[in-house]
């Protein structure tokens, strides 16, 4: 799929901007603090209706303005349709093909985006939260109903934690804990089942890519760390029973601690290269290669599941990768994935893909189009 | 504000109503000034009477001007069947259907630990007393199909189960007269779960 045209109104440091993009590679060049990342972020917001940088929509609105608007013309599997996001102090509106979508799960998934930013290099060594966010976002854009279950789960979790705090002080009826546990398990089992399925696919796509980048030297494996004793092949019913057993075993401790001690919100991923845990024993380079393999696998996975390649956003990461990883990355996307690359300097990157790219020069929120060829 | 006190008090009163913001409140207040005095008196009386003469039925918790309410007093209704709802408005909705001939119990809310609402803060204790005193055979749980409503229904059914009274939950599924293609995934999957033999 491609973004053919993007229009920003009162977005961050852009007052009004309209751009036509190339179907292949678009390079955004500019000094620091000129708005390169803001442009990448805008495409991300158009896909997910929220930013990857901040949970506060208000920050996306230009200073002194009432609202911010992002419009994009998308072509996907021979269809063309407009997308629109309007953010204001009253909330946000998401329009798909001119029609407002009340539920975000009806909107997300219309545009598929894979972003690779410097913080993604922390995917392997960062906190478990980053890895959970990664799987949740990716499953969400392939299967929007997952977002619903995740939302319900989080609501029940909040209720349950409040109840456990009350029970800690003996101020509530323990029967209510059975009720909330039952509700929590229903969604927990669905979430875990979908995560297992996704992980199987991710592993399948990431392994050959990782071998490719490391010229066959490294074998990648991914393990899902859940707090119940089940295998990835378990069906929903098995997961449900396992959670039931887990929560009844944890009951006394949960009341003592006043918080929920098991469930998908406490799970994690582990990555292994040639059998060694990358997070604990991998070099910085191995951790980066692993993150890169996962992102490239995502592209293939979305292509397989959705039937079209997603849009790839490379925000200031090309310079963070060495020559061989750079050329592997650019080789993978060559010709098939519409890619946006932001960089301060294009001269350090030598690859055919970039020579044919469309270049955009950016200064203080204004874009100057340049013809192709560096 | 530059309004004389009587009107600013009126504006202030209107803003206490749900869905009324400051601008609408000003418009309504000025409209009251232009109304005939008799109409204004009737309006004021209706407000006061609604509050003074309506109470909650001591049996079922429904709003009523006589205690017990007309539904609880109605001998022709089946007292072995009780439909549990969250809100008096839900009783009205059920009554419009004209098919349910049992009695009601209005909870006035749903259990939500997050908001500090426990079973004793809604009409659960009075429901349990009713089940002890009356000859009830079936309890229909018609709370809202959201997390708190479901939790409340599950909680009540757990409390009632040992007594042997049958507890049922109203079905979830597709609205009548609608198109299948417009149903969301969640409703559709609930409808599939609740399918039945023809």
From TrEMBL, chain A:
The keyword Chaperone does not apply. One of its GO terms (cellular component) is cytoplasm. Residues 3-345 form the RecF/RecN/SMC N-terminal domain. CDD domains: ABC_RecF. Pfam families: SMC_N. InterPro entries: DNA-binding_RecF, DNA-binding_RecF_CS, P-loop_NTPase, RecF/RecN/SMC_N, RecF_2. GO terms for biological process: DNA replication; DNA synthesis involved in DNA repair; double-strand break repair; SOS response. GO terms for molecular function: ATP binding; single-stranded DNA binding. Keywords: ATP-binding, Cytoplasm, DNA damage, DNA repair, DNA replication, DNA-binding, Nucleotide-binding, SOS response. It comes from the Bacteria. ATP binds at residues 30-37. Its main location: cytoplasm. It is found in: Cytoplasm. The keyword Magnesium does not apply. Belongs to the RecF family. The RecF protein is involved in DNA metabolism; it is required for DNA replication and normal SOS inducibility. RecF binds preferentially to single-stranded, linear DNA. It also seems to bind ATP. This is DNA replication and repair protein RecF. It comes from Terribacillus aidingensis.
UniProtKB/TrEMBL annotation, chain B:
SUPFAM superfamilies: Recombination protein RecR. One of its GO terms (molecular function) is DNA binding. Residues 80-175 form the Toprim domain. The keyword NAD does not apply. It comes from Terribacillus aidingensis. The keyword Cell inner membrane does not apply. A zinc finger (C4-type) spans 57-72. This is Recombination protein RecR. The gene is recR. Keywords: DNA damage, DNA recombination, DNA repair, Metal-binding, Zinc, Zinc-finger. It comes from the Bacteria. Belongs to the RecR family. May play a role in DNA repair. It seems to be involved in an RecBC-independent recombinational process of DNA repair. It may act with RecF and RecO. GO terms for biological process: DNA recombination; DNA repair. PROSITE patterns: RECR, TOPRIM.
């Amino acid at each position: 799929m491609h973004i053919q045209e993007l229009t920003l109104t009162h977005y961050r440091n852009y007052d009004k901007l309209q751009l036509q993009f190339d179907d292949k590679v678009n390079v955004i060049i500019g000094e620091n603090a000129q708005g390169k990342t803001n442009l990448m972020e805008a495409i991300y917001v158009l896909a997910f209706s929220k930013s990857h940088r901040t949970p506060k929509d208000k920050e996306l609105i230009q200073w002194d303005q009432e609202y911010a608007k992002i419009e994009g013309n998308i072509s996907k599997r021979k269809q063309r349709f407009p997308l629109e996001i309007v953010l204001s102090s009253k909330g946000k509106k998401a329009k798909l093909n001119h029609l407002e979508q009340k539920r975000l799960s009806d909107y997300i998934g219309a545009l598929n985006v894979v972003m690779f930013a410097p913080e993604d290099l922390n995917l392997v060594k960062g906190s478990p939260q980053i890895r959970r966010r990664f799987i949740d976002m990716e499953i969400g854009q392939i299967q929007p109903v997952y977002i619903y279950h995740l939302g319900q789960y989080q609501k029940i979790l909040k209720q349950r934690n409040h109840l456990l705090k009350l029970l800690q002080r003996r101020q509530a009826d323990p029967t209510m804990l059975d009720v909330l546990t039952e509700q929590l398990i229903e969604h927990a089992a669905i979430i875990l089942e979908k995560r297992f399925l996704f992980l199987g696919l991710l592993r399948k796509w990431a392994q050959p890519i990782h071998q490719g980048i490391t010229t066959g030297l490294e074998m990648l494996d991914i393990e899902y760390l859940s707090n119940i004793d089940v295998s990835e092949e378990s069906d929903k019913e098995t997961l449900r029973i396992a959670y039931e057993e887990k929560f009844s075993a944890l009951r006394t401790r949960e009341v003592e601690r006043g918080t929920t001690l098991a469930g998908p919100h406490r799970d994690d991923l582990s990555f292994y290269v040639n059998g060694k845990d990358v997070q604990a024993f991998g070099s910085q380079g191995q951790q980066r290669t692993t993150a890169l393999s996962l992102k490239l696998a995502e592209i293939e996975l979305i292509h397989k599941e959705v039937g079209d390649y997603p849009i790839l956003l490379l925000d200031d990461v090309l310079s963070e990768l060495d020559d061989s990883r750079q050329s592997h990355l650019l080789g993978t996307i060559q010709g098939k994935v519409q890619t946006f690359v932001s960089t301060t300097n294009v001269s350090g990157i030598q690859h055919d893909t970039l020579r044919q790219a469309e270049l955009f020069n950016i200064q203080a929120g204004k874009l100057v189009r340049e013809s192709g060829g560096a | 504000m530059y309004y004389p006190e009587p009107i600013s008090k009126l504006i202030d009163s209107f803003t206490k109503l749900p869905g009324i913001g400051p601008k609408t409140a000003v418009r309504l207040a000025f409209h009251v000034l232009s109304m005939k005095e008799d109409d204004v008196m009737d309006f004021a009386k209706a407000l006061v009477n609604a509050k003074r003469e309506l109470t909650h039925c001591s049996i079922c918790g429904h709003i009523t001007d006589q205690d017990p309410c007309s539904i609880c007093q109605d001998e022709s209704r089946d007292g072995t069947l009780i439909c549990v709802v969250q809100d008096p408005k839900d009783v009205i909705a059920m009554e419009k259907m004209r098919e349910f001939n049992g009695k009601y119990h209005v909870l006035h809310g749903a259990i939500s630990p997050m908001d500090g609402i426990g079973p004793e803060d809604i009409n659960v204790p009075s429901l349990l007393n009713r089940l002890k005193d009356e000859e009830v055979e079936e309890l229909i749980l018609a709370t809202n199909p959201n997390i708190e409503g479901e939790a409340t229904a599950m909680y009540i059914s757990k409390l009632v189960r040992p007594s042997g009274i049958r507890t049922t939950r109203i079905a979830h599924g597709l609205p009548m007269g609608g198109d299948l293609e417009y149903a969301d995934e969640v409703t559709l999957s609930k409808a599939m779960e609740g399918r039945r033999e023809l």
